[in-house]
Design a protein that fits this description.
This protein is mostly helical. The chain has one domain: Growth Hormone, Chain: A (Up-down Bundle). About 80% of the residues lie in helices and about 0% in strands. The chain is built from 18 helices and no strands. It has helices spanning about 1-5, 15-50, 55-85, 85-105, 110-135, 145-170, 175-180, 185-195, 200-205, 210-230, 250-270, 270-285, 290-315, 320-345, 350-375, 385-410, 415-435, 445-450. The longest helix is centred in the first third of the chain and has 37 residues, at about 15-50.
Amino acid sequence: MLETAAKGQPEVRGSALYSTLISMVAALGSVMFGFDIAIISGAAPFVQVHFALNELQLGWGVSSLLFGCMAGAIVIGPVTDKLGRKRTLIAIALIFAVTSVLSAVAPTFRFFVIARIVGGLAVGAASMVSPLYIAEASPCAVRGRMVALNQLGITFGIVVSYLLNYLLRGIGPDNWRWMFASGAIPSVAFFVLLFFVPESPRWLFLAGRRAEAAALLVRIGGSDNARRELSIMQLPKGPKDTKFSTLLRPENRRVMVVGILLAALIQFSGINTVIEYAPIILHSAGNSLDTAIFQTFVIGIINFLATFVALFTVDKLGRRRLYVIGSCGMTFTLACMSIGFLTGHMQGIFGLVLILAFISFFAACIGPVFWILMAEIFPARIRGIGMSVAVFVQWFSDFVVVLLFPWLLRHLGGTRTFGLTAAIAFSMIFVAWKMIPETRGQTLEQIEEFWGH
């Protein structure tokens, strides 16, 4: 089969470039993921004033996107298994573009929330399908680096949204509308570029289109890589599992426990409270709103730059080691933030440095490794629905945390709130050390064998 597919296609040194380019296009889904998650941070103070919202209403307005994310994550697994990764991403891009405009023109708070929920469907779906596509379309030797492009896309979307928030903050009472409307531009670019990328080779193989899969593997990683991948790539034992009840079978329980724990802890450690409420946190610590929004942009820059650490180390140091390092760093910085609120030192440069350190540990270690593991650890027979459930848990945890954070910050104070997140971050160290398998340099099929043991 490989010989037929590769006939007339000599070994090409630049095949890695092709893999990188199609991964970058898929990562545009993650750019929109980050943009839609973070654009609310700078818009929230103005949305609260425009619609006269209390703390819980503000929390609902911010977290409503995450409600849609949960739905998008749980339904997209069977959809992408049936339609393919590429067609699913095209539909996601279209939803991104439409809901960016609808959020911007919302005449009422209810309309705004509905638009954000529908937009959340695309965010939740993209959070699963983009890294899944990249993992399935990358040679195993560089798969970690390629999937890390997913996290780089998220952080780039965040920093762009922070920059737009800062630039548009003073243009008038409807500045928040322009913040949301700006998301339509990258959404349309994502939609158009998707027509120039191929389908995932592993999806093609499982769909019975083996010649196409073989030819694509040659183009992605060369004939030697394609021959090696095809020699171990095989249809799952037995029929493909498409029912959620199959996740409770004994052979699937272990990987599901690991996936769900990773998904819940990454949110309860507080990362998206910083991403989405950074101006409010900094403002509550005594900074002016203008200063808080500018500092939030600085946070976005550090978040983006720190992701490059994972890009160049995850295939050398390994997933588990990076996760342990990041968990230790997050625990320390969250504990320092708790102490900072207690002593009154969170205002000014000290508080900003602590938040920057927290973001750096997350972006350099935890964020990229989480999405890499989500794309790697699930066996092929349950990859779609297994990843859907784990990502659903991630978004549900995010929804709960973001919904309640304004209330917690007001009633418990910064000391107790960040002390609690520090304790949760500490538990991540144990989970990483004891439960996460090292997947560096292994094919997806070899990782699947680990759970069988």
